[in-house]
Design brief:
Length: about 280
């Protein structure tokens, strides 16, 4: 294994220019029941996990009104309110959940405004730090959906606006009428289809929040490069996958989610893994 110098990375990201967040957040989707539907099997463990997240130093939690639905937001408030100074809670609106396994975009302004009000109530906030359009609705012009968020921002209901599941053209379209501070797309070692969106975020000072950041596929197979490098660092494949993201671009703020306190501790350990440029290239191939 090469002993070439590890690449230094920034430990924090300045979200929207005014919110200092650790570059490893927590995705609160999996503190719900099976299929992201209903309450978790053990409410006590879910609340303990949320408190553990904050106690560790993580100060960015991402959720959505559709997780449960409503369950994730309710649990965050029950476990953490009154919130510690510096904790940034991001949520999303624009997705309906009529039943388990069903996800239907609803980007109508009337729906987004109502959804934001309900998230404010559940989270016990007067203003949401980061409110994200969960997914563009093919039946509603994107600028109408984003325009509703601009109105909510002007009314003091949200601090910053983010997007999720968008391509580069949609990002540019939204930026024509709003200050966008983040994009949340699926991105990991085995799915880099949003590389152009990531590059746009890096160029424009936006945070890129990769969801499903831990997918490693065949890269984690026995004898593979990921396993070899992980062993050298006394780390796991999941920690290497997160460390690769942190080193790949300073715009990336991974938000791995879990329902397990032990799994959270494993993910958090990725912050201690320093990779060389050679290791980065080996992992990516």
């Amino acid at each position: 294994m090469s002993e070439s110098k590890s690449t230094a990375i920034a430990s924090h990201f300045r979200l929207g220019g005014d919110l200092d967040v650790l570059r490893l957040g927590f995705g609160a989707m999996r503190i719900t029941g099976a299929g992201i539907w209903g309450p978790p099997r053990d409410l006590t463990i879910a609340k303990r996990l949320l408190r553990q997240v904050v106690a560790s130093g993580v100060n960015f939690i991402d959720t959505a009104d559709s997780y449960g639905p409503a369950v994730s937001e309710d649990l965050i408030a029950e476990a953490l309110h009154p919130y510690p100074v510096g904790l940034v809670i991001a949520t999303k609106g624009g997705m309906l959940r009529p039943g388990p396994g069903q996800w239907i975009p609803d980007g109508r302004p009337v729906h987004l405004k109502r959804a934001c009000e309900e998230s404010l109530r559940r989270l016990r906030l007067s203003r949401i730090d980061l409110y994200q359009l969960h997914r563009p609705d093919p039946n509603v012009p994107l600028l109408e959906s984003v325009g509703a968020l601009v109105e909510l921002q002007a009314a003091g209901k949200i601090r910053h606006i983010g997007l999720s599941n968008v391509n580069r053209d949609q990002l540019a379209q939204a930026q024509s009428i709003a200050k966008i501070v983040s994009v949340q797309n699926s991105y990991n070692l085995t799915n880099r289809s949003s590389e152009d969106v990531l590059q746009a975020c890096a160029e424009r000072g936006l945070a890129f929040l990769p969801y499903f950041p831990l997918a490693v596929g065949n890269l984690a197979r026995a004898g593979g490069s990921l396993q070899t490098i992980a062993a050298h660092h006394h780390a796991t494949a999941a920690q290497l996958a997160l460390a690769w993201l942190l080193h790949h671009s300073p715009a990336i703020v991974p938000i791995p989610g879990t329902s397990s306190p032990a799994h959270f501790e494993e993910n958090f350990g990725a912050l201690r893994v320093s990779l060389t440029a050679e290791e980065m290239a080996q992992i990516a191939t």
